[in-house]
Amino acid sequence: MSLLLKNTSVITCDIDGTIIEDGAVGISNGIIDYVGSMEAYMAEKYDRVMDLRGKAVMPGFVNAHNHAAMTMFRNYADDMKLMDWLFNKIFPLEDKLTEEDAYWASSLAILEMIKGGTTAYCDMYMFMEKTAEAVIQSGMRAVLGRGLQGETAEGLDYRISEALELYRNYHNSGDGRIRVNLAPHSVYTCSPDYLKKVARVAWEIKSGINIHLSETVDEVKNCIDKYGMSPIKLADKAGLLNENTIAAHCVVVDEEDMEILKEKKVNVAHNPGSNMKLASGIAPIKTMTDMGINIALGTDGASSNNNLDMLEEMRTATYLQKVVSKDPTALPVDQVLRMATINGAKALGFDNTGEIKKGMVADLIVINTQKPWYYPKHNVKSAIVYSGNSSDVEFVIIDGRIIMEKGQVLTLDEERILYEVQRRAERIMS
Ligand code: NI
Q: Could you list the pLDDT tens digit for every one of the 430 residues in the chain?
C-alpha cells in the first residue's frame, strides 16, 4: 500500500531542525519516497491520500528505556526510596506475576505508548516471549532483553539460557521490527564475574547490551566501596560498553565516567521523570550532549514514572536541564526533539528510522494542532514540546502501516486489555 500525507507541517527532526510548511510525505512499501512541497498530479501516484490541514507530521517517538510489563504495578507503591521500593514492594509482587499477566501488562504499555505517539521502544524484563507476542500483534517496533541478574560465572544460569532462547526465537522477528539484546540489570544485582560472562555471550552472538548504570548516589558509593571503582568503570572493565550498549540513567557520573561513555560510544537513555520521582538526581545531560555522547530519552517503567508519555518526558528533560544549569538556553527544542526521536532510533539500532527523509522507514505520527494550546501558530516544534499533549496524537504509522487512526489503535483490543489488567492486578495485590 502507498500513502500520501499532504497539506501538513512536516517536522523532519534533521540536524538543521527543518520544517516544511504545507508539505507532503509520500510512503510506498513502508519507505518514505517523497518529502517536500505538494506537486501537481502527485496524489495520483498513491493508493490513499490524507489531507492533514492543521496537523503536523513528525517521526514517532522512541522510548529508549522501559519495563513494559511493570504497568501492572502502576500507582501501587509511590513516594518511596529506590532500593526500598524495589526490594520490599516490587520484587515480592514480581514473584506473583505469571507469563499471561506479563502479556496483558505489556499490551497495556504498548497501547499507551502507541496512543502517545511512540513507534519504537526498548524493554528489559522477564517473560519476554509474551512481550514479544504483544509487540508483534500491535505492530510496534522494539528492542527486547530478558533482564539478567546473577552472582557466578560458572555454567550458564537459567536467565542467560532464557535470553539466548529469546534471541534465537525473536531476533529480527515481526518483519524485522524486533531486535533482541542482552540486559544485565545493574552492578548491584550482577557480580563482576557475571557481567563478564554476559559481555562474552553478547560478543559471541553479536547482540547489543542494555544495563542500568549509575542511577543513584547509593549505587555508586556501594560499588566504589565494594569494587574500588564506579559502576561505569566496572561495566567497562567487564567488557560491556560499546556503540551497541544502552546505559540507562547515568545520573551520578564524574568526568572520568563521561569520558568512558564518550570513548566507547555508549548510548545513554535519560529518564528524567523516573529520576525526579525516585529523587535519584539530575543527569548532566547538557554536559554529555556537548561532549558528543548520544543521549536518548526514556520513561522507565510505569511504576516509577508513572506514565509512558514521551511528550511529557521531553518537556521534563528540557525544564530540568534549564533549572539545574540556571540557563534557559539549555536543551533547546530541536535538541530535545532529536533525543526523543533519532537519537533513540540510533541507540536501539534502528538506524533507518527516527527522521523524515527520503529512503527512511516510515515510522511517523500525526499531531492535531487544531487545539487552543497551539494558537496562535508561530513555531510548531515549540508548540509541541512546550504546549502540546500526547492525546493530540491522531495517527501512528509504523513500518508504513497505519497502526492508529483518529485515536483508535487498530491492532489491539483496548477494552479487553483494560479489563484483563484490572482483574489480574487485583489478584496480584490481594
Ligand atoms: Ni529501569
A: 899 999 999 999 999 999 999 999 999 999 999 999 988 888 899 999 999 999 999 999 999 999 999 999 999 889 998 888 888 999 899 999 999 999 999 999 999 999 999 999 999 999 999 999 999 999 999 999 999 998 887 767 899 999 999 999 999 999 999 999 999 999 999 999 999 999 999 999 999 999 999 999 999 999 999 999 999 999 999 999 999 999 999 999 999 999 999 999 999 999 999 999 999 999 999 999 999 999 999 999 998 899 999 999 999 999 999 999 999 999 999 999 999 999 999 999 999 999 999 999 999 999 999 999 999 999 999 999 999 999 999 999 999 999 999 999 999 999 999 999 999 999 999 8
How do the domains of the chain map onto residue ranges? 3-59+353-409, 61-348
Q: How far is the CA of 67 from the centre of ligand 1 (A)?
A: 6
Peptide bond into 184 cis (omega under 30): no
CA 228 – ligand 1 centroid, Å: 24
Residue 280, C-beta contacts closer than 8 angstroms, at least 6 positions apart: 82, 215, 216, 249, 251, 252, 274
CATH number of 3-59+353-409: 2.30.40.10
Q: Please indicate, yes or no, whether the overall pTM of this predicted structure exceeds 0.85.
A: yes
Residues 6+ away with beta carbon under 8 Å from 256: 230, 233
DSSP class of 372: G
| 65, 67, 77, 81, 387 from 84: Cα distances, Å | 21, 18, 10, 5, 35
What distance in Å separates the CA atoms of residue 239 and residue 188, rounded to the nearest whole number?
17
259 vs 360: CA distance, rounded Å: 32
Alpha helices in 25-98 (DSSP H): 82-84, 91-94
Ligand 1 midpoint to CA 372 (Å): 35
In 3D space, the residue among 240, 239, 221 whose CA is nearest the CA of residue 230 turns out to be 221
- 229 Cα: distance to centroid of ligand 1 (angstroms): 22
Q: Measuring CA to CA, which residue among 270, 250, 430 is closest to residue 347? A: 270
> Ligand 1: distance of its center to the CA of 226 in Å?
22
At the top level of CATH, which class does the domain 61-348 belong to?
alpha beta
In the reported structure, the alpha carbon of residue 300 is separated from the centroid of ligand 1 by a whole-number distance in angstroms of 5
First to last CA, the chain: 48
Compute the distance from residue 272 Cα to the ligand 1 centre, in Å.
12
